[in-house]
Amino acid sequence: MTKKSYFSKKIKMNKVSEILSYITEVAPIHWQESYDNSGLLVGDANALVDKVLLTLDLTEKVIDEAIENSFHLVISHHPLIFKGLKNILVDDTTGRIITKAIKHDISIAAMHTNIDNSFYGVNRVLANQLGLKNLNILHPNFSATQQLDNSATQVGSGMIGVLENEMLENDFLKIIKEKLNVRAIRHSELQNKTIRKVAICGGSGAFLINDAKRCGADVYVTADLKYHDFFDADNEILIVDAGHFETEQFTKQLFADIILKKNPKFAVQISRVNTNSVNYFV
Fold first, then answer.
1. For tag attachment on the chain, is the N or C end more exposed, with fewer CB atoms within 10 Å?
2. Segment 256-276, tens digit of pLDDT
3. Domain span at residue 58?
């Protein structure tokens, strides 16, 4: 899987709803968590667009990029509108982004926990980056899988797989640092064991620590862990916080691949804006 930004050579107009349907075929909206807000958030589902801008987060720099380059559809992983809005004002970032989008006829959509919970979603591409094989959902959502003709392992949180060859803990940490371009890795106490079975969850995944231990994983890679979360390793597993952006950064390319597989003539570009909100002083 490449990481480049690109346009397809031949441009074809499509409805916003059509472009979004390519992703929801892989990750239906009803797979999202109850707290989430995936789908079309701003704009007209029937509007015709000739290209899409893809991003992990919809920041003001991203919407300005869309305006400057005449994009009329932006798809992000994280929803711009997550909590209830009581007003839309230019006094705050969200209000400015929505106002700019409406003024410039830009539709905004998010594909968040629905693509997180897909077997072919966020964790699949993260697993591929880390070289994992024999993949399975870490915490299956059986209520959702009932709608999939008994494909009981295809929907749920996290993923677990194995490395082709076992390796020392430090060597695996080096792979994470290299493959995810992580500047600093936080982890629990090293177990002085070899790593073969790996559990992962892109983004915030503290809620799956016990699942990783139950499945016998040697290491669990996720993000947004708090101080006390690392105690849950309990000398049974190595817990790694590799960063929220870092573990989900490949979602942009995933969106591009899904869209272009369904419609090779549609123009796709990955945003050139680095939306990682975390910086390091080293």
1. C
2. 999 999 999 999 999 999 999
3. 14-115+249-270
